[in-house]
C-alpha cells in the first residue's frame, strides 16, 4: 500500500486525555480515532492489526473444535428477563426502546441468546457435546471509559460457549479452550499467564483469567516461576498450568499460606485479556432447557463460556511491545511487514528504486507500506518508527548511486547497507 | 466439517411468518434464526456464506483503490445535528441515551462520521483523492421488518466514501465504484442491472441502483436488451452501461418518450442490492470542512457514497438461485463445495469410505461437509438438497462393494457412478 493512497494521520503530540502508553501510541500512529467517549474508529492501519488478531483467535477456536456463528448486537430484553440477569445487570448495560416501545439492549455478552438458539434445537445427549464461538462487537456503558480501546464502551470480543451432558465433558471443553488460549497468546507473540480466578456473577466453580505480561499492566500477579518453564507443546501443559500457583494480588493476599517458596514466587504486572468459566447448568436450568440423557432421564446440559477481548488485545500488545520511538509490532500482527522510506521523493533514481522494491515485495507476497509522501527524511523516519513495522527499507540518493539500500530492524535497531536482492531476502525471511 | 460437530438445525416446515422463498429456505436450511423482530443470528452455514459474500465485496473494493477502515456502530447525535440529518431522519433511526444522558444512535449510515474523521486531518488538495470503505453492521428500525435478512433491522452493509477536489475527480471515483459493483455481482454469480436512480434524501445529481435479476424480485425494471451484451471486461463497460436505458417501473412510467424500441425493451423483476451516489459538497460544506485547492483557494471536497447490502445479498442470491428442493448456491459463495452423504452410518465399509473421502477432500483444500448423522438416507438426501452445496457424494453399501460413489451435481441434477478417484477429480474441478 502507498501511504498516499491510505490514511495514516500521525500526530506530533499525544492528546491530553490519553493516560497510558498504548492509548497515546495508537492515537499518535494514526491507528484509531475516538468518535465518542470510549468509542473508536479503526483507521486503516489499526484495522489491519485488529483483523490479524481476530484471524489468529479464529484459527485457534477452529482448532479447538468451535463452530463459528454470528449473533446480532441488539438483543431483546425478554431473553434477559428469562435468565434473571436483566435486572441484575447494572447501568453498564445499554438499554433502549425500539419504535414500538419494546425493551431492547446492546448485548454485553451472549450466554442467554446462544442457550436459546442451541437448546431450542437440541433434544438428546446425541446432539452434544457442542462448542460455539462468535467474534462480535459488544457494548458496556462504562461510567468512565478510559485507556483507549483497553477499556472502551464498544469493543470486539470473541466469546465461546460449550454444552456438555456431564462434568467430565464440561472439563474436556474447558481444557480445550484453556489450551486454545495458550496457543492464541503464543501465536500473537505474547507471554500470558493463566491465573485462577474467582467466578463472580457468571457463577460456577472453575474459572481462569489470562494475563498478558507488561510492565505497564493494570494488575499485579503472583506466580510460581516454574510456570515459565511449561511449554504449550507439552501435552500435559493444561494440567501442569492449572496446578501451578498463579493469583492476582487481591486473591494472593487472601491466601494464608502460599505454597510457593519465596525464591520461586514472581510478581509481575499483567493485563487481563481472556477469561474462561465453567458454570454448569446455570442458564440451561434457569431458562428451562434440558435434553434426554443416556438413560432416558432429562438433564440440563452443563455450559462454559470463554471470552477473549480482541480489541483489548490490540492495546495490550502495544503495552507489551513498544519503546521510546513508538510501537514495535510482533511480526504476526504488524499492519505491514516492511516500510519503504523514500528519502527524496521526486528524485528519479530514488523513485525508480522504491517502485521496484515495492513491486518486488508485492509480487513476493510481502505486505509493504511505501512512504511516498513529499516529506522530509527526518519526519519519515519518525513516522515509520512510530508505526512500528518490523522492517524498514531506506532509499536515499547516496545508497542508490552506490547500489545499496539501508535495511533497519525495528526491534533491534540493527542497520545494514545491502544490495537490493539481499535486502529483499532479509526482510522476506 | 462433520455435521455432528457443527449446527445445522433444518426445519421440516417453513415458519408461518416467512413470506418469501429466500426467507423460507434460509430458515428451513438452518442458515439463520430470528432472535427479535427483523434481527437474525447467523448460524454456522449461513455465516460461512455471509463471509464469502463479504470477501468478494472486499476484494473488489480493494481493487478499486479503497482503503478499508472500521467505524463503530454507536454514534453521537451531535455529529448528526451538525449535518442537519438528526431531525430529518425519521423513526427508522434507533436513538437512545447513554448512562450520562447523552444522545446516541445506532448508525444507519456513516457519511457524517467519515467526513469528520477524514476532513479533520485533510488540509490540502494533495491529501486527495481518497476512497474509504468499511463493512459494518447497521440498524434501521423498520416499522414492519420482513422478508428475513432482505429487510431486517440489523444488517451488514459495505459503505464506501470518496473525496475529490473537483467534478472530474468525483466522476472518476464514481466510475471506479460503478465498475467495482459490476465485478462484485459477476463474481457472486449474479446478473445485475445498473438502473439510473433518483437521488432522494442523500442529495446530489448522479446515482445508480444495482438490481439483481430474480423472478421473485420486489421491483420491476425496464431496460434495453442491448445491456445484456455489454461485458464487464470491456474497458468501456461503465460508459456504455451508463448510457444504456434501464429504469425502475415507477421512473420508467414518468418517461414520456422511451428511447428504446418496443422489441428491445425488456421487463424483468429485480432486487436492489447496491446504490451509489455522487452528491458533491453536501457534507463537507454542511459540516464546514474545506482544503486548500490547487490555486490556494479553499474548496469543499466533493463526495460520493457507495453502498452494498451484504446481508441483503445473502437473501437475493437465494431468490435468484433455488429450485423446488431448496437452495442452489453459486460455487463462489456456497458454505461448502461438497456434501458427503453416508447412507449407512455405522456400517464399517461405508464409514471407512466416507472418512477416506472426507480426508482426501480436506487435504486437497476442498471444503466438505460430511453428513455423519444417524439418519435415514431419504432425510439426508432432502437435507443436502435443501442446503444446496454444488456437489454431493453419496456413499452406500451397494456402491462401496462395487467400488463406486454416486456423484450428484446439485444444479443440473446429473448423477454418475464413479470410482473414488474420478469422483474426487470431478468435484475438485
From TrEMBL, chains A, B:
<keyword id="KW-0436">Ligase</keyword>
<protein>
    <recommendedName>
        <fullName>Proline--tRNA ligase</fullName>
        <ecNumber>6.1.1.15</ecNumber>
    </recommendedName>
</protein>
<dbReference type="InterPro" id="IPR050062">
    <property type="entry name" value="Pro-tRNA_synthetase"/>
</dbReference>
<dbReference type="InterPro" id="IPR036621">
    <property type="entry name" value="Anticodon-bd_dom_sf"/>
</dbReference>
<dbReference type="GO" id="GO:0005524">
    <property type="term" value="F:ATP binding"/>
</dbReference>
<dbReference type="InterPro" id="IPR045864">
    <property type="entry name" value="aa-tRNA-synth_II/BPL/LPL"/>
</dbReference>
<dbReference type="InterPro" id="IPR006195">
    <property type="entry name" value="aa-tRNA-synth_II"/>
</dbReference>
<dbReference type="Pfam" id="PF03129">
    <property type="entry name" value="HGTP_anticodon"/>
</dbReference>
<keyword id="KW-0963">Cytoplasm</keyword>
<dbReference type="Pfam" id="PF00587">
    <property type="entry name" value="tRNA-synt_2b"/>
</dbReference>
<dbReference type="GO" id="GO:0004827">
    <property type="term" value="F:proline-tRNA ligase activity"/>
</dbReference>
<comment type="subunit">
    <text>Homodimer.</text>
</comment>
<dbReference type="InterPro" id="IPR004500">
    <property type="entry name" value="Pro-tRNA-synth_IIa_bac-type"/>
</dbReference>
<dbReference type="InterPro" id="IPR033730">
    <property type="entry name" value="ProRS_core_prok"/>
</dbReference>
<dbReference type="InterPro" id="IPR002316">
    <property type="entry name" value="Pro-tRNA-ligase_IIa"/>
</dbReference>
<dbReference type="InterPro" id="IPR044140">
    <property type="entry name" value="ProRS_anticodon_short"/>
</dbReference>
<comment type="function">
    <text>Catalyzes the attachment of proline to tRNA(Pro) in a two-step reaction: proline is first activated by ATP to form Pro-AMP and then transferred to the acceptor end of tRNA(Pro).</text>
</comment>
<dbReference type="GO" id="GO:0006433">
    <property type="term" value="P:prolyl-tRNA aminoacylation"/>
</dbReference>
<dbReference type="InterPro" id="IPR004154">
    <property type="entry name" value="Anticodon-bd"/>
</dbReference>
<dbReference type="GO" id="GO:0005829">
    <property type="term" value="C:cytosol"/>
</dbReference>
<keyword id="KW-0067">ATP-binding</keyword>
<dbReference type="InterPro" id="IPR002314">
    <property type="entry name" value="aa-tRNA-synt_IIb"/>
</dbReference>
<keyword id="KW-0030">Aminoacyl-tRNA synthetase</keyword>
<feature type="domain" description="Aminoacyl-transfer RNA synthetases class-II family profile">
    <location>
        <begin position="38"/>
        <end position="330"/>
    </location>
</feature>
<comment type="similarity">
    <text>Belongs to the class-II aminoacyl-tRNA synthetase family. ProS type 2 subfamily.</text>
</comment>
<keyword id="KW-0648">Protein biosynthesis</keyword>
<dbReference type="InterPro" id="IPR023716">
    <property type="entry name" value="Prolyl-tRNA_ligase_IIa_type2"/>
</dbReference>
<keyword id="KW-0547">Nucleotide-binding</keyword>
